[in-house]
Amino acid sequence: MLVLVPVLVALALWAFAWPAARTAPRDLPLGVAGPAAATGRAERQLGRNEGAFDLHRYANESAARDAIRDREVYGAVAVTAKGPKLLTASAASPVVAQLLEQASARMAPEGARVPTEDVVAAPEGDPRGAALSASVLPLALAGMAAGALAWLLRLRGTRGVLVLIGSAALVGAVGAGIADSWLGVLSGDWWAEAAAIGLTVLAVASAVAGLGSLLGYRGIGLGALVAILFGNPFSGVSSAPEMLPEPLGLLGQFLPPGAGGTLLRSVSFFDGNGADSPAVVLTVWAVLGLLTVALARGRAGSPHTARPLQEGRGEERTERRGEEPAAEQTGTPQPSAPFRSA
């Protein structure tokens, strides 16, 4: 207790507080649209913060809009005949959209303001993205609970696989019903949102159940460490993966919570654009976990632990009745009944 509790507290503070305290743009994809001769000044001003932005150049404003909808960039600065214009996507990250507005203010003449257009706006029910950010931890906890219960109830083989898939599908339906139908914080295709939520839960649940099948209680603890202690703060859902210290943002996208948050944004606000990579990551986690659960079928029961206990109890009952266990057949003549009585 004296050692482990402070270590766990320090680890949790490092995982949650350090990324939040060091939030800043790091190679954040940003577009610059317009003729090369006109965009030079905007590029120089954006490049003053070395390493903050990864600039993508587009021929015109229309191309920059398409890039934002395709999730290639978080926003763009379009240089027009009337001056610079900022294009944002608050649905991708309200924090990044606000950051870009502050950065673009330096491009306008003193006292003027750069006009801003939100190309892909966040839903009215969640304009700051707070509800979507808060949904990552409950999904991880749901997957953690499903995987741990499947292991504790000794659900292995085909039965374990079906239970994990069924529970994840039901969580996906319930989650989409609450977030989309009731709260209105999601605005995409309902079935796609339910599938994204269910796949996220399935990835966590199957990984936890698989680790439990391999390592026992230590596997359950390792699953909690990956999915909750590291996966949640490294997901970047509250801001953006590119806003976290390196390499935490990249690492978080290879963990189920981060991939699930990115997938849910893509199917809800961007018509599925940018959903390929997170869907592949979640599928790999789910398939590996389900295969482990399926192959653990032979270790589901406990006959090897029950048999010695039953044999010991049988011998104890025999001795209590005053009977001696039969002697082993070693070839030595056994004494007759009178001698045994004496």
Automatic annotation (TrEMBL):
The keyword Ion transport does not apply. Keywords: Membrane, Signal, Transmembrane, Transmembrane helix. It comes from the Bacteria. The chain crosses the membrane at residues 130-153, 160-178, 190-212, 219-240, 279-298. Residues 301-342 are annotated as: Disordered. Residues 1-17 form the signal peptide. The keyword Ribonucleoprotein does not apply. Residues 310-324 have a biased composition (Basic and acidic residues). This is ABC transporter permease. It comes from Streptomyces iconiensis.
